[in-house]
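Re: the 313-residue chain
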Amino acid sequence: MAVQTATLLLIPKVDKRIDDVQYANYNVPMLMYGERVLIDREDTGYRGVGADAYVFTEEDYVDARVETTYEEPDVTLRTIDDEKQVVRLARLNALLRQLINDKTATTAQLRSALTPVQYNDYVGSLTAVTHLSEINYGSGMPRDLRRYNQLLKAADFQLAKYEKMSGLKSVGRAKYKHDSLKNAYNKAEHMYEHALENLEELWGVVTPAERHELQQWMDRDVDFDKGFDRTIGIEADTIPRVRGSKSKKALDSGLPKLSLRLKRKECQLTALREAAWTIAFEKVAQNYVSNAVEPNKLSDFRSKLKRINSEKD
């Protein structure tokens, strides 16, 4: 009973750790101009310098993480007559403590603590898609956007070259002629225009489903169909940028980490939690899936991806 009680006390800590790992791996941060976006309000007293300067907290950001309470589950302890099960539960608890404390669990330790079926399920979970971020961003930047992104980077490089030339001239460190500066700027403008034409051509030939997938990767609404009312243009500030961009001009460059290391840690915690629950409690195990996609929604997303891939082929 002491070992089972230890499991009961561990569950809230395990749930919090799983939630932390999921948030770190699958959350898509809102990054404007390369920085998190602050809530626009006047009563925070952000002014001050040195020790008096205001230090931003999580609550100050528009995409602030919602606080979650982790409680002990309402369960009944099982009657365990097999001493081997008690030993295995103690081993599971020890591994859970390791992972809670951000230490690693070896393959040998997992094989020793889990049954063969549980271990095989764990291995399968490593490649299973269970989160919306994995669906939207797990395959990396769409191939169709790579050419556009290359053109955009080249245009940014040319603009940076012009700005450097202009800056050196303004402080008297270089003597560039007016025509040289003008030509450098015009070249950058032409390259932005060429990049945007490439994107508009792409937007015109893809299917609606493909366009939806591509839009997921853009930092702003791509509105070619709005004519004179469209908000995108060939300037560095108005041209659409691909998510993950390091440019300070990007309106929203946030992407999830989708780290294999964090995915493995999540799957280990979940597998060990379920195995410990099965031994310790009467109630059917409830896996922790706070940020996971609901099964019916996940099925819909997978169907959508299959449809998009078939249309591409």
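Residues 166 and 202 are 34 Å apart (CA to CA).
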